[in-house]
Structures are given as C-alpha cells and as structure tokens.
Amino acid sequence: MPFFPFDLNSAAKDPYYAGFVAAVDTRKVMLDVPDDSLERISVGKLAVLPIPQPDAWLVGFIDRVVCKAQYVAGPSDDSEAVGGKDNQGQLMPMLTQGNAVTITLVGAIQRQTNSGGKIGYRFTRSLISVPDVHASCFVLREKALETFMGLLAKAGDTEHALAVGHYTLDPTATAYLDGDRFFQRHAALLGSTGSGKSWTVATILERAARLPSANLIVLDLHGEYGQLGYARQLRVPGPDDLDSPAPGLLFLPYWLMNAEELIAMFVDSGEFTAHNQAMVLQREVEKGKRLFIEQQAKKDILPALTVDSPVPFALEDVIATIAELNSEMTQGARGLKQGDFHGQFGRFLARVDRKLKDKRYGFLFQTPKALHSYDAFHALARQLLDFAEDNARIKVIDFSEVPTDALPIMLGIVARLVYYLQFWMPKEKRHPVALICDEAHIYLPRDGTNPNEKRAIACFEKVAKEGRKYGVSLVIVSQRPSDVNDTILSQCNNVVALRLTNAADQAVVNRLMPESLTALLEMLPILDVGEALVVGDAVLLPSRIRMNPPTEKPISATIDFWTEWSAPDKKPDWELAAENMRRQRRRSS
Ligand SMILES: Nc1ncnc2c1ncn2[C@@H]1O[C@H](COP(=O)(O)OP(=O)(O)OP(=O)(O)O)[C@@H](O)[C@H]1O
Ligand SMILES: [Mg+2]
What we know:
This protein has helices spanning 142-156, 179-184, 197-209, 259-266, 274-296, 315-326, 346-357, 362-365, 376-385, 407-424, 440-443, 451-466, 486-490, 503-512, 518-521, 561-566, 574-583; strands spanning 17-24, 28-33, 46-50, 57-66, 83-85, 91-93, 99-113, 119-124, 136-139, 161-167, 174-178, 187-190, 216-220, 232-235, 329-332, 335-338, 394-398, 433-437, 472-478, 494-497, 531-535, 543-547. It is of the alpha+beta class and 589 residues long. Among the domains are: 11-156, Elongation Factor Tu (Ef-tu), domain 3 (Beta Barrel); 254-366, no CATH class. The longest helix has 23 residues, at 274-296. The protein is elongated, with a radius of gyration of 30 Å.
C-alpha cells in the first residue's frame, strides 16, 4: 500500500489534486491549478509531488496563490517579455491561462526496507530529486495530512526527543524537537513582549528536569523563574543579604574578574592617566595572586600564574600600594622629588573606594571570608555546575538585584567561568551544560559601547563560537532580536520565533533562517500567543508549533490594567516601595 492513497493515473479527479507542475527551479515549483482545485489550496499548507522513484514524494509549503493573473511579482519586471521574477529574484515563466501557485520544497519522503524486510517510510530534509514538468501535485489535508504528521511525530519521537507542543497544521500530532540538536549548536528564542518566551523556556526546563543528568543554568534578570519547584534557586545577594549569608546566595568574589574586567570596573578610559592606572593595577594584582599561591605552597600553579588566574588576592593590599605610589616622594639629586606615579591615582582611588563601600556591589567586594580561601573556587564551580544533588539539574540564578551597570560584567563572569571550567575538564569527564540567557538584549547589545558591555559580549561570543566543542550551549532569549549582538545571534542554528511584530526584528529572524521560507516568515506577526515558527536542524520540517504551557508557570503574568483598576479597596504600600528602593531589596513587609 503506497504512503499516500493518491490516484496518479487520473490525478485530476483525485479529491486532493492541486494542479500540475508548470515550472521548476532548484527549490521552487510553480503549478498550474484548475479552478476547481483552488478551494483546497491556501498559503502555508503542505503539498506533495511524486518523483520518479517507487513511492517517493517531495514535500513543500504553498507560499503564493495567484488567481488568473500574470505571474509578475517585482515592480521592475516589466522588461521580462515572457515572465517575471519571484521574490528571490528567480525567473519564473508566466502562465497564459490558469492559476499560478508556488511551492517551496522542504524535503522528501522515501520508502525504505529495514533489515527485517519490513517496509517503512522516512522523511529527509534533502531534496533527492526535482519533480518532472507536468507532474501532479496534491494538497495534504485530512487523512493524508495526519499520515504525514504521524510520520514526522514518529520520526521525532526518539530517545532524545523534546516534546514542546503540537503542530498548528494538525493539532493531534505532537511536535518534537531533537533535544541533542537543539542544544548542540545554540538556539534563539525570539518574540515580542508577551508572546510566550518565558513560558516556552519553562516548558523546556520542565522537560529537561525529568532527565536524570540534565544541566541547565538560567540567567534570570527579573526573578521570573524564582518559584520553579524543580529548580535550584541561586541569587546574587543584594545589600540586605551581606550580613547574614544564606546558602542560596551566589557571591562572585572580585578575584574572579580577569584583568580586563578589573580595568573595566575601576579604570576610566577617558582619564589622561588611564594607561598607567591599568598597568599598575595589573602588576599589583598579579603580585597579590603570586603571594597568595606562594603562601599556599601550590608549586604546580605558580608557573602558569597570570593576572587573569582565578586566584584570591588581597585587594586592600593592592589599594594600599597604589595609594603609596600616588603620594610617593623619592630622593633626587637636589632633594626630594615626586615619584613616577605621584598624583596619577587620585580619581582612581576615589572610584575604588566608592565601589568597595557601595553595598550594591557587596556580592563582589564584601563577600564572606571563606570565599577568599584556596578552595573557594572549587565550591563555586560546584555551585554553578553541579547537577547531582537534589534539584540541581536546573539552576536559576536571579540577577534582579545586581546594579544595572555591573550586570554585564557579572553575567560575563558566569559565562566565562562555565566555559573555562568545561574547557579544562578532561574530555572523558566533561558533561554538557546549557546557559539560558533571558532578556539577552539587555546585556548583549548589538553595539555595546561601554567597557562593561564589551567584556560581557566578548565572554558570550567566546561561548557562541567555541562552546559547541566543549559542551556549552547558549539559548538566547530576547524580545528585541534587532538589538542583540549579531555575532552571537548568528551562531544560533535553531530559531524558535514567536509572534514578532516589529519589521527590524523580523528582518533579523529572516537572516537567521537558512531556507528561503518567505511564506512562513510572513506569519510572524500573526502568530497567536504561545505559537512559534521553529526552524533549524532540531526539527525535521520548519514548522508552526503551538507550545505547551508549562505546568509550573514563571512569574511573568501580564498585568490586567483595566481589571486591576476596576477592583475596589486596593492598598499599595508606598512607604514599603520607597524603603525597598533605598535598601535595593524587594521585601514584602
Ligand atoms: N504556550 C502558551 N499557551 C497559552 N498561553 C501562553 C503561552 N505562552 C504564554 N502565554 C500567555 O502569555 C503571557 C506572556 O507570556 P510570557 O511571559 O512567556 O511572555 P514573554 O514573551 O516572556 O514576554 P516578555 O518579553 O515581556 O518577558 C503569559 O502570562 C500567558 O498568559
Ligand atoms: Mg519573558
């Protein structure tokens, strides 16, 4: 029994008949469609064409229907005597009669016999052949559509299947992503605000949490994922937490910063003496680190030690030395004279002092004593990457109380640590980890101008470019893809595009999509909430998928203004808000 029950001998009478092939291009087919087939055809539907192999079919999306009209698309096409160009600039002939329908081919169905002699079918993304001119084309609907979607679902339902929702074309068919491929070469989850990104993240997390050795880190900027029961909650401490450090707090002691990050934090590149400040700071930090390692008698570390090594050092000693240099007087031939660096660090020292005392930066500079020990780095690596303990498979790091100017540096440090810890893990012991970067446009901007942003972008670019080899994956989530750094986004091989209304953002998604799927892209602004267009090697077919809502929802519910305003007796606590703003901590009483 053939895969589709279409009548190839008297195709025109078949209830699924669409038309016959009038022109063929490498990926596009134009059909001549009789009037009575038109009602079955609409843009976005799937169609199949037989190819000269037993029971083999090409599959494509209908992307244009022109009724009894000349097929001329572009405004400048008048010069073409016998045809026009489609929107890829490819020449298509003009029909003298009939209706023109264009189809973008996306894959093929082939019959195969397994080792037991059983006949099965397989869908592949490669176009094994092009259809013959005059070949018949059939629209996939009802039973035939179910058969095809069943094939997709079955093929997707593998050991590494990640069930995310259902196909819009056939709501009974479960849509799977290939979990291996989705994370292997980074993914982007894009959509306007309120389109369902955070919910989709939660759906994926929920699935991943069921795997015994999953390892995902969510960079949570708004505390949206703070209540997911299956996740380990880590929080970068606010000013309020410094005196009573609790276990869920993630301090990032200053000695984790590399030279460039320290410079971005303390040196104002606009100052005349910035160069000297940077040079002396690096020299003294390296000295401090060397001293620490010598005191610990870790001989095997000394030869490789640089200013960038993740080794504790006494910042107060570095500052004291720099303060001395700033006021140093040396003996000259004619009495005392000012030292080489005299007066060069005035503003630097004031800036450092301000940052060190600022409680908002407490998670860096006012960390518990234990975090300045040799083993503190081991504990931190475990805190960030371990997945063996209860609820440690998904780690949510809440950055909502980190001051905005320090945010890029802190996120950059986390990305850099994760990357290098994976990098230095012996290959046979390496275990893959994914970083979910929610609201990426905030800290990975397209043109990061300030030094902090530049540092963060450099760290994430490194992961985007090299992470695949060391088992570090990025999932870039953003409501403004046009504002996200291009290099990082262009490394994402899978795109989950939810509703996107802005033309600039749509253009970014267009660039990320490997195939010329114009018809699908045009759906971006009209997708429903929670509905996505998924393209990439994690799906067998570029598809429109309605995402499953997660069981445990993120705290991101859209506020119903009118309803809230309609409720009587509302009593917001202004004093509490004012106090919270002062203490930089969102307490509830
Ligand atoms: N798969 C879904 N099914 C049904 N409703 C959904 C789905 N996803 C999201 N929603 C609805 O849309 C609302 C907004 O979703 P979500 O918070 O995920 O948006 P977002 O894209 O993350 O927005 P933002 O960019 O502002 O963070 C949810 O509160 C929920 O009501
Ligand atoms: Mg969100």
